[in-house]
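[job 0412] stage=fold_complex status=start
inputs:
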Amino acid sequence: MRLELREITKQFPGVLANDRISISADRGKVLGLLGENGAGKTTLMNILSGLYRPDSGEILIDGEPRLFSDPADAITAGIGMVHQHFMLVPVFDVVESVALGAEPVTGLVHTFDRATARKRVVELSAQYGLHVDPDAKIEDLPVGVRQRVEILKALYRKSDILVLDEPSAVLTPGETEELFAIIRGLAAGGTTVIFITHKLNEVLEVADTITVLRRGRVAGTVLPDETSREELANLMVGRDVELTVTRSPAKPAGVVLELVDLNVRDDRDSMAVRGVNLEVRAGEIVAVAGVQGNGQTELVEAITGLRQVDSGSLRIGGQVVEHASPRRVSDLGVAHIPEDRSRDGLIGSMTVEENYILDSYHRDPYSNGGRLDWKVIGEKAEVGVREFDIRTPSIETHVGALSGGNQQKVIVAREFSRPVQLVIAAQPTRGLDVGSIEYIHRRIIEQRDAGAAILIVSTELDEVLALGDRVAVMFAGQIVGVLSSDQATKEAVGMLMGGVH
Amino acid sequence: MRKRLRPLLVPALAVLSAFIVGSLFLLFTDIKHIGMLTTDPVGAFTGALGNIIDAYGALIVGAFGDPKRFSTALQSGDIHDWTIAFRPMSETLVAATPLMFTGLAIAVSFRSGVFNIGGDGQFVLGALGATVVALMFRGMPAPITLVAALAGGIVFGAVWGFIPGFLKARTGAHEVITTIMLNYVALQIVQLALRNDFLRQSTSSQPISKVLDFVRVPQLIPFLGLRLHWGFIVALLVAALVSWFLFKTTKGFELRSAGLNLTAARYAGMSAGGSIILAMVVSGALAGLGGAFQVMGSVTQMSNDVNSGYGWTAIALALLGGTRPGGVVAAALLFGALNNGGHGMQVASGVPLDLLVFIQALVIMFVAAPDLVRKIYRLRQPAIESGAPAAEGAPA
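[job 0412] stage=fold_complex status=done
writing structure:
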């Protein structure tokens, strides 16, 4: 079916989230919807899926205006959503999950007709090459397959228009490739696909047309063959952006972080980090690549003192820190950019200035014998806001009200506000827009050039390749390969990430 | 200035709504006038309305005093008349004082992310501690005895807060369970202690302590002979102190951080266990001090009756006051006025005291459901915070 959104406008208190946005996608075509965080993508999709009602504008399906008052209307109209965060019941199997809410029933008391549901799931799975085991439990499935279950759910409800919201955020490079193949297959079969992302490469690869949103408006609609990454980035951000931050070759000096045969257990007491040996020298960036959940989180927590080390040795600047507290590690001059900024790095309902001192409030000059000196704190926070170009109405604004990029800048500004010999950055640019990514990368490289040792942990291949002077790949708790920056190609790292070595 | 007053809007409207619903309650239980509805509808309506006005009028007079009494006192200039005029107000503040201490205690714990439900136990043990220390110091100069007894209250309360704090920090035992259970333990300790001849008043068959007349908290306005004592002023000072502690000290910063996001506090190098224990100790100490002032200021003997659910009411006060010390003080004053004025209302207009319990419960309900209040009065949502739709495109 042909989908068209015409002049959609949606106003929230203080924000014009969608300003006369018009997009269209023909039957069997893939529309790539590209935009930074806050550009209005999610609002637009929530309107399309019936969660929000537009203040003005129309939704047309096959030329016919439609009004959705709730998500059920949108589903009836043939629109299927695959959300970024999956909506699946972990203890259900695939057939149950897919049929949930649209179960075929049988008999007098309308019992669930599993056989019929299963048959359709198998058919659909085969028809679109989804390769999903209908009887597997959701909790046993890898993330990539769970996503295909979500797609199945939409197809099962006879969706002719499939909306995928940031679908690659949780996938490995290999899984992303498979997803693209599935998308092409769906389009070939007549499904209209709307693919929402902030990743330039992906829209170029999979979309038939690309519409770029910026600050709630359409910044442009282009064809993949007639555009370039640079042009798209420019449209997204509204200015020229350096996609790969230029960096001079590293000049590694003495070892700052040294891990020898490190073993760390996860919360479920199984070994998450297995015999890791790694060293990071002053003046170099070591990037740890790997799919989420291969022990990187536990590795970072162990280094920063947040998690008990099971065995092995851990030294920072020559000091033994296997059993050090987070405070002690931080006192050694370790900056930590945690992987989940809103959970680990910030206190959303505290102000920018309070967050700015979150890990150094007890130090001079902020603390004066146990008393906080708010005047000095305010002055220093103002300096941080200015130096790191944090866009905030004031330092008394709650940090939770800032955009993701500005939140991350608050963390980076805080961590780099004191002398640093080691930087541990986990997913430093996750979910950020191109402009913020460029900025944060530049700041990290500055720290390297100033002589700090840097350990980056990232699931984004592009980031690992852009920053790593050396790239270590983690798989199933082990470092399965360390590549120099000229050996580290997309293919080589991608293979190692998938466990092929 | 408008921005500063905004947080007061919802609680104020909650109180107003509670009174409106309370008046409906009066209306529908007014059997006499409901019976008149068919014979004399106008009379029934005006009569019922008059009833409501009488009841609320008596409540206000009971809580703040009768204007007529004030004018009498003004004319006669007699001290005795002044005492009578000011007594309702004095009693309101006396009723509010223990609530201020326990309300602040619970507010500190909530701010720190710890749910201290044990205000009751900490309060009675504080009262017991004060009694024990006072009797031990008997014969010393009164000021020394008083200060020592207050300190005793603080220590007993703090210990009773430390236990669940320590258990949570060390073993993860949930403080809601442990503090509730320790309330019962505290009551039994008091029972046991009051059997001891050192404490017990030998002339009474009831478990009640010796009269603590040698260690009174001084009255605030001695020449009027009212019960209002310095504990009220100390409660105000403690509120200021708590505010200073929470917002101007590093320890207070740790507590607030831990309360808002324990994970981020840990990542920032703060000690989660330390924060929990500190919060519970401070909380227990405040409740204990309240108990000490109660037994040596408002009443004269230690018994189980020294506490009337102050620790429980405190939970509501902490919420009503938005866990801000100033807000808690205001909420405690409101509840003190309702409790005290309720007695006057019962005597003057025959409306049962239970109506006040009903209204208090409604206040809490409305405060706990701010969206409901905003809907009823068609207020706008508060300024955009995280989570509002405008924070679009939540982190990927």
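[job 0412] summary: Confidence is low (pLDDT under 50) at residues 383-396 of chain B.
[job 0412] exit 0
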